[in-house]
From TrEMBL:
It comes from Meridianimarinicoccus marinus. This is Copper-binding protein. Residues 1-22 form the signal peptide. Keywords: Signal.
Length: 140
């Protein structure tokens, strides 16, 4: 365009490059999808162990059969992770922190998070952990 100086063109080009680099470095652009955890009254958890890595963005889908009330706790994992959002019926919640999610009926909840510290973090359903509702996240 006439009237723009060379330094202004360089500034515009650098701004575009910086925006592209920032977008590529945004860990929340694409989540790694974990296998869904199904809470089944007859059999307990469908999965009892997840192996994940620090600094990776994950989506954890939890599905309940609705035959019981389930209060799923993962306090250590949630405390040592950055929780981006919790999605319930296409409605997003942007929490400051998270301790548990609870199902009163059949449904699903997605938790989007980035683990920050390695370790082993149990997850369980309160009151049903001895009946097949206990698992662990191994964070490397």
């Amino acid at each position: 365009m006439p009237g723009l100086t060379k330094s202004l063109w360089v500034s515009i080009a650098l701004l575009g490059l910086a925006s592209a680099v920032a977008a590529e470095g945004d860990k929340t652009r694409r989540a790694e999808r974990l296998d869904p955890l199904v809470l089944d009254a007859a059999t307990g958890f469908s999965i009892t162990s997840y192996e994940i890595e620090t600094g990776v963005y994950y989506r954890w889908r939890i599905q309940a059969d609705g035959l019981e009330e389930y209060k799923l706790l993962a306090p250590g994992l949630f405390r040592e992770s950055w929780i981006d959002q919790v999605v319930i019926e296409d409605k997003e919640v942007k929490p400051f922190g998270l301790h548990a999610v609870e199902f009163d009926d059949e449904g699903e909840i997605d938790i989007w998070f980035i683990p920050q510290r390695p370790g082993e973090y149990p997850f369980y359903v309160e009151g049903l952990d001895t009946q097949g509702f206990r698992g662990v996240f191994v964070v490397r």
